[in-house]
């Protein structure tokens, strides 16, 4: 069923009328995209710590109103599953905090979604991470993951287990495993080449991000989560959004791309975690949602609202300029809207509006984006992220 959100003060009908976005069925939006498009050329909405529904201010990262089935229907396509071994069974955990859901329950929900007539042409990227290194040896955990996949609905056949980034057509109705576990992979038939996309490095909370290679695809990863306090929300968003812009290409740098990662014409995947948390001044919920009344000068604007405005500016850069400027003015506000000096000052924080920046074509925003409390504010962020898949497309490029 198509969603009917309100997006940052404008109704979905307003956004559709303006041409900024098109109302789509989020349960099946990938069915509108050609088979030849590689997954690194998509913008896939995801949830950080997908099953972290408990733990209140410290460990909760998703709302109880958005269980896994709802997330999938709402367009979430990248799942961040974190598990621990409890008496020989894998259970969802966030760090040391139990999140209660058995891995088999997760697999059942995913299988039901991928075998539904409405969503059988979708694909899901599932990152699996071990949370109990101190009590469960990595080979034991790796074997448990394999065994539970094998005994779950769909078995191992539902998985794409090659260590490369596939095209959409190769993985419709399948789960692309991203294995953040495994040691040497001895528990899997083809070792590290048969347990899905396998990152070669993952430094902890690297502020400037890090890169690794997955066969011919260069992977840029932003996972800076340990921000010192909520005062660093603007910087967090500024850094994260730069990873959604394409890297410069040789001979085609128009000055509007991230210059930190010149990768020529190599295929590039951006893996972006917009989540951040540190105790006590940057808990997951207030970081994602903000708090107080920032539009009235009393409070702090959260990551999700800032990200949504940034994406909306990008999408609106190609529509009627009169409407674009009215949108920009509405969202960016005046000095009084900036919330104690830490609200929406885009020039100061580097999240400048893309409107009027002279883009020759629609900007290409691509990557896998994992967020906390994705349905706030106002259930609209995923709609904007999904729309990016249909912008900046040119025949003969990106598999289109």
TrEMBL record:
Q: Which branch of life, at top level?
A: Eukaryota
Q: PANTHER family this protein is in?
A: PTHR13593, SI:DKEY-266F7.9
Q: Give the protein name, as stated in the record.
A: PLC-like phosphodiesterase
Identify the residues that the record assigns to the Phosphatidylinositol-specific phospholipase C X domain, covering every copy: 35-180
Q: GO BP, one example?
A: lipid metabolic process
Q: Which organism is it from?
A: Lentinula lateritia
Stretches the record annotates as Disordered: 244-265
The record's listing under Pfam families reads: PI-PLC-X
